[in-house]
Amino acid sequence: MPGASTMLIALAAFFWGISGGIAGILLDSGWDAAVVSFYRGFVGLLFALGWLLLQRGGRGLASRPLWFWSVVAGLGVAGNFTFYFLSIDHGSVAVAATLMYCAPVFVYLASFALKLERPTAVKWLAIALVMVGVVLLTKLYAIGAGDLSLMGVATGLLAGLSYALFIFGFKYAAPHGSPSAVLSIAFTVLAVVLIVPADLSQTISVVSAPELPLFVALGILGAGLSFLLYVVGIKHAAPALASMVAMVEPVTATLFGVAVLGENLEMIQMVGMGIILLTVTALSVTSR
Fold first, then answer.
1. Staple 186 to which of 28, 37, 73, 146, CB 3.0 to 4.6 Å?
2. Which residues of 68-86 are buried (b: 16+ CB within 10 A; e: fewer)?
3. Would you give the DSSP letter of residue 31?
4. What number of other Cβ atoms are within 10 A of residue 237's Cβ?
């Protein structure tokens, strides 16, 4: 079961990476970041509600812990989407991505404090290797002072903290109800929170826009299907391990950019990608 769980989490991260590329296409087409984030969550909500209605019994909707942790997860996902785009807007993609993917550090520190994990030299080394890989992959070392700002750094770190928050939210919600119930509550919270900053005229115009299929694909891959796999997987995986395995996401996003968007991948980025994948694979294999 632990091995299958890590595979489900890795597959979810793979879909997140693809959805990041789709979101990039929509943003380049002139769509507002808040609108893109809202539809990612809204289509995911429709996906989860449809599955919930088809399910018979065992939903767990009467459980208070299910509602509490699902709301926490929804706030975490909403914060992650929002702060990540704000960090990009006030800085650069490389800075935003690197800071957001500090999430494993936050999760491990929380796990150590809550005594869910025992700190060891191997775990600290794994954290360090993944962070080195992310820095090389995003080419953070090449960022100039002009690309750094206090707001960009602050929102990037908040995106990472929000990432860690939804990991714990989904982890503790999963045992109390069905994945469809967890996702329905979480995505309802997400949609309510993100509809406020979204441009209303753009939000309405999506329905008749030629990019509608991309919005649907973004919602299904980036929220509905991916989070379904994630909630099922994290039920039997430690939060710290889940956060490390989810580092497949930046690798997938980078490969999507190369294969679909025609971006170039330098040798140093390939080295960073290899470090991430090898570290994640080693942790997945050795973890019990």
1. 73
2. ebbbbbbbbbbbbbbbbbb
3. -
4. 25
CA distance 96 to 138: 9
Four-point Cα dihedral 197, 202, 205, 210, nearest 10: -120
252-284 pLDDT, tens digit per residue, is 877 777 777 677 778 888 888 888 888 877 776
Angle CA 218–230–43, to nearest 5: 30
- E strand spans, 93-224: none
Nearest to 47, CA basis, from 204, 251, 193, 231: 231
The predicted-structure confidence for 80-107, as pLDDT tens digits, reads as follows 888 887 777 776 666 777 778 788 888 8
Q: Specify the pTM.
A: 0.83
CA atoms within 13 A on the CB side of 71: 6
Total residues found in the chain within this entry? 288
